[in-house]
Amino acid sequence: MLLNPIISKLAHKLVVLASASPRRREILQTAGLQFEVVPSWFEETLDKDVFKAPYEYALETAKQKALEVARRMPLTHLKIPDLVIGADTIVTIDGMILEKPKDRQDAYRMLSGLSGKEHSVFTGVVIVFCHERERQVDYQLIDFYEETKVKFSALSEEMLWEYINSGEYADKAGGYGIQSLAGMLVEYVHGDYLNVVGFPLNHFCKQLDVIYKGCPSSLSDKSVAISRLKPPSVLVELPSGSTLPQNEVIKEKESQDGRENDGALPLIASGGQPKHTNESNGPKKNELQHMIALMDGFKASKALFVASQMHVFDVLHKRPGLDAAQVAQEISASVKGAESLLEACVSLKLLKCKSGAGQQKPVYKNTDVAKHFLLSDAPFSLLGYIQHCNGTIWPLFSHLHAAVREGVNQHHKAFNQTSENLFEDTVYNSQEAKLRFMKAMHSIAKVTGMAVATAFDLSSFRTACDLGGCTGAMAYEFTKAHPNLSVTVFDLQPVVELSEHFKSQDTDGRVSFIAGDFFKDKLPKADLYILARILHDWSDEKVHLLLSKVADACSPGCAVLVAETMLDGHSAHSTLQSLNMLVQTEGQERMQRHYEHLLNTHGFGDMRVVRTTNFLDAFIAIKK
Fold first, then answer.
1. Helix (H, G, I), strand (E, B) or coil at 59
2. Of 306, 365, 309, 296, which is closest to residue 337 (Cα–Cα)?
3. How far apart are CA 498 and CA 507, in angstroms?
4. Cα 127 from chain centroid?
5. Torsion angle of the four alpha carbons 173, 175, 177, 182, in this order, in degrees rounded to the nearest 10
6. Partner residues linked to 125 by β-bridges
7. Which of 214, 360, 395, 486 is the most buried (most CB within 10 A)?
């Protein structure tokens, strides 16, 4: 039985392998199957005790892996696969399931238990067929399993530890890989050798032959739970917390026109419930996808944060084309963990993965997005802001419920910090926190600065003061855009002391720094006052105090330029920024009319707004 006669049937279909296992990839590639790899995010935490037989556990795990990928791809990859393959391999002895060892001692426990004994290797395989309907995606599931008997020779302690010290046990069911060094430990194999490697290719090919050609199969009754086309049957996905033994199936009813669905598999609708074709008031497909995207959004953020923290993108910039094992070594991670993280980054379009015929292992490279924003030395690197999001905003957002209830920032809960002065007592309370915040503000200013600086014609102004200008990144963008403009950055003493770390290499002396507190100290004289991402940190009371000081420093014709995310239009970004301010500061994001009122109160008029579409909106007002 060869897969080749069926290749033409699959040639124009999107086939997906829901596994990061390089062994499974190689086996399927050898068969000539063209497919994409999207590792499943399903956590393998099923209770083994609820399954009557070991193969039932492997089948259920494989099913959950495949369904997770089938349901996620329309959201993260913006495409619906035609066919998703899920697989799970386990080793069993004396009724006990052996999965992947946690560490060396766990590997010793497993391998010493296999020494001199025969054991079984089960691989459960689930094939999910995805059908896009008018309002939902329907899933057809076929599953089967393969059992292979393997016997180890009697192993001495020395041989056991020599194998364990090779490191080959890691990320392998039962703690061994028969295709490598462990082949020397094996006395005999009864059954499909490739099943022990990780995928029962022969059984898989026979199953595809049944599906696409409808020819009789020689598959054994006990190993195919969902394969017969007459009568068709399918496992039903139950709500969370429910279980259904693998040998329970739901028979397909007659179709609406009264004819039996001869030769076709029954359908499971999105969410795993039986499809009801006469239902008209249920949720639409895009509604469900929207909800899943919202629920899973935090996972994508955390994957980005961790990959950045572990310097994945810098590693692949220096050495593009590494495989998962090589990346794991570079970032001091497990191979399993690195594979999962790399594939997550591929799905988020931060990395590209190259695999296929002749390619032994998938290799990874940065996408253009990663090159622009995720490299340490990229001109528009956002790593500083990502670090701030991970180290500061993430812990604060975990207390969002308290912030909503109390209406105050959550530094006291997230970091056990109370403050009279937000920046001096919390943001700048340690050298580490100070540098992290400054790097975050620097990276955002580098990305947004030019759009803000060029939003208006500023040729009539000669001097500007960037209040709370932090590292000077915004100020440097203003001097680049306006050759006749000089800018003074006015910020707290701890910030000015560290500004040299961020000094632009191409400065011509038109950016200077003065230390001071814009609430307490006299402001430097200037024609233009820049307030970029400053007013949103403070309450209306303190904003009035600051604007009154700016107004006192201005003569008629001087101006104030505000750069903020305005709430007009209620974009997802702007409204989430409002929650961001709630958990972090005493301030808030505001609408355009709110800023107009604030500035009018202090004698500013002739107001103009530019939506830069680059994170910040720009607002200028002239002193009357």
1. helix
2. 306
3. 17
4. 25
5. -150
6. 87, 144
7. 486
Would you give the end-to-end CA distance of the chain in angstroms? 87
| CA distance linking residue 123 with residue 201, whole number of Å | 11
Rounded to whole angstroms, the Cα distance separating 361 from 354 reads 9
Tokens describing residue 1:
């039985």
Instruction: Say whether pTM exceeds 0.85.
Output: no
What are the residues facing 83 on neighbouring strands?
A: 15, 129
Q: Are strands 616-623 and 511-515 parallel, antiparallel or unpaired?
A: unpaired
Continuous segment of H or E residues that includes residue 360: none
3 state DSSP class of 117? coil
CB 536 within 8 A of CB 589: yes
Chain-wide mean pLDDT for the chain? 82
Q: Which residues pair with 456 in a beta bridge?
A: none
Give the Cα separation of 460 and 474 in Å (integer): 19
Question: Residue 474 — pLDDT band, cuts 50, 70, 90?
Answer: very high
Do the beta carbons of residue 589 and residue 581 sit within 8 Å?
yes
Q: What is the pLDDT of residues 534-575, one digit of tens each?
A: 999 999 999 999 999 999 999 999 999 999 988 775 556 667
What's the token pair of residue 50?
Answer: 């609820």
Contact 502, 469 (CB under 8 A): no
pLDDT tens, residue by residue, 123-138: 999 999 988 876 678 8
CB 465 within 8 A of CB 532: no
| Strand, helix or coil for residue 373 | helix
Cα–Cα distance for residue pair 398/495, rounded to 1 Å: 28
Q: Which two tokens stand for residue 617?
A: 């909106």
For the annotated catalytic residues, the residue numbers are 88
